[in-house]
Structure of Oxygen-insensitive NADPH nitroreductase:
Amino acid sequence: MNETIRLLNSHQSIRNFTEQPVTQEQLQTIISAAQRASSSSNVQAYSVIHITDEDKRKQIAEWADNQAHISKSPVFLVWCADLYRLREAYSMHEDPGQAYLGTTENWIVATVDAALAAQNAAIAAESLGMGIVYIGAIRNRIEAVSELLGLPAYTSPLFGMCIGYPNQNPGQKPRLPQQAILHHNTYQTDGVVEQITDYDNTMMDYIMKRTGGKRSNGWSEDMRNKLKAPSRLDIKSYLNGQGLDKE
Ligand SMILES: Cc1cc2nc3c(=O)[nH]c(=O)nc-3n(C[C@H](O)[C@H](O)[C@H](O)COP(=O)(O)O)c2cc1C
């Protein structure tokens, strides 16, 4: 065990923050750490938008299921996939011909780059004693968020991130048993149901305690509820309209 591993293992999402501000210098430190993340061919195909405008925050919070922490956290960031900059870089050179930007491969490159950078930012913030929560619900209204933030072609919002000093200690959420996610040489389908059943039992205990006995649902039930109806089916056409994930 070392400090870094202790820090990684202490993560819990924070949705309630103290008034203590995050300074400009701290934010710069967090973003510098984000920029040190590995990047596919060094394309750095992401951007992050720091939202300080209160009206924009309120509007995004409303679109994202009225999650109060979006307008109340000291810092709110929106992480975006960004191939626009690459198109500009490409066009700076003579006789460019066609740039193959909008492929599914490049969409994966951009989303992975953004996620790696964001997670570096999360760890950096947590190492400074702050807490974070990711906000995927900004994709409830992906097109509206995109317009609000003035995103150009070849970009897309991916998720938000609230950062600030924790005003709660909600308790760590258990994870799947390691053998469920770690395979050796070949994918192991044997035992998956047993692993899920184990995890269901762990999660039922956890949820029961966390909700004071009000709920006791297991993980598989949550996943079933999540997957029994499709969600955000407008994303595909939004991405295609932005020139992304097309071929
Ligand atoms: C991409 C992404 C999107 C998320 N979106 C939301 C969100 O909109 N609202 C929220 O409260 N938590 C959100 N979360 C947080 C997850 O619910 C949380 O990480 C998960 O339940 C595990 O809990 P833990 O982070 O406390 O360990 C998101 C997490 C990720 C990685």
